Amino acid sequence: MNAKFITGGALSKTLKGAAFSKSVFMGASFMMVCLLTTSAKAVNEKVVVAVIDTGIDTEHKDLKKTIWINVGETGKDSQGRDKATNGIDDDGNGYVDDVNGWNFVDNNNQVSDQEGHGTHIAGIINTQFTQTKHGSADLQLMALKYYSPKLSNQMNIINTIKAIHYATMMKAQIVNYSAGGAMPEFYELQAIQNARKLGIMMVVAAGNETEDTDVVRYYPASYRLDNMISVAALSKDGGLTSFSNYGKNTVDIAAPGKLIYSTLPQNRYGFLSGTSQATAFVTGHLAAVVADKKPANYKLAFESLFKQAVYSPALKGRTKFQMALLNEIP
Ligand SMILES: [Ca+2]
Ligand SMILES: [Ca+2]
């Protein structure tokens, strides 16, 4: 896959806390990934959630069974070799041996997580899904590693765009993006619009800068497409955390984001705070809604999600509907 870009773009502000910053580049051109034209429908018994983050520890004992498997890269090829490791792009999607997702940082299929952020997010999604679903559906987490502190902000956003296209192509039903930055990026918006056309939902962080995003925009949350939900972070007392961004027109919902206990690489666990964590909380609930209600479209899915939330006077002027998802704090 080719990506060409012009450097020297405006830089975004840096997120404090556990969400990641990115920056945008101006005047970039980006070769779009063509959508596969397979007619395979999503199987109802599983909900596929793309986690666009720092990777996931796919060997963590709590996560192992929830990692997405690309069936087109499993089984034996005509030579009797394992498709997952044969060095061939068996499903013809442009990625070789992408059995659990893709590492856009190193451009290979190794999606392991050195930072811990993505594994923490994956654990929250898994816990919330498991605790709130009623049926027997399974969760599958597609690991899309876009972020590395070693990369320039420009590369991090290019990898974000590639990851959104990948999630769309491989038919994830929900994309979790616990990150953002201050400037809009046309190709990122286009990627999300593309996902929207296929009914894919995107849950995104409101940001950790204690700013009013009605005034100071934060992207992708501020694209305000109707297939997106932006999430602010609640503290344990039910109000917003001191760091959370807010916006009565631009933040959709609030969820727990203070000292959230979840998985970390190498079978460890720990506490992290951020709108990142709140975003994952909402994604887990949304995945359960998709599993249980099988909503015909994302509008119905969001309606069901909001029915699980409670009205919170403490969110007056801080989020659009003053609704908070409060239950099942891990
Ligand atoms: Ca492939
Ligand atoms: Ca292969």
- CATH architect. name: 3-Layer(aba) Sandwich
Indicate the CATH class: Alpha Beta
Principal-axes shape call = globular
Question: How helix-rich are the residues, as a percent range?
Answer: 10-25%
Report what the structure shows.
This protein is globular. With 330 residues, the protein is an alpha/beta fold. The chain has five helices and 15 strands. The strands form five sheets. Strands 5-6-4-7-9-10-11 form a seven-stranded parallel sheet, sandwiched between helices. It has one domain (3-34, 46-324): Peptidase S8/S53 domain (Rossmann fold), CATH 3.40.50. It binds calcium ion (2 copies).
What brief labels describe this structure?
disordered N terminus; binds calcium ion; 15 strands; Rossmann fold; alpha/beta
Would you kindly provide a brief summary of this structure?
The protein is of the alpha/beta class. 23% of the residues lie in helices and 18% in strands.
Sequence-ordered SSE layout with sheet pairings:
Blueprint: E1 3-4, E2 20-21, E3 29-30, E4 46-53, E5 101-103, H1 117-132, E6 138-145, H2 153-169, E7 174-177, E8 179-180, H3 186-197, E9 201-205, E10 228-234, E11 253-256, E12 260-264, E13 268-272, H4 275-293, H5 298-308, E14 310-311, E15 323-324
Parallel strand pairs: 2-8, 4-6, 4-7, 5-6, 7-9, 9-10, 10-11
Antiparallel strand pairs: 1-3, 12-13, 14-15
The structure holds calcium ion (2 copies).
Residues 73, 83, 86, 88, 90, 97 line the site of one calcium ion.
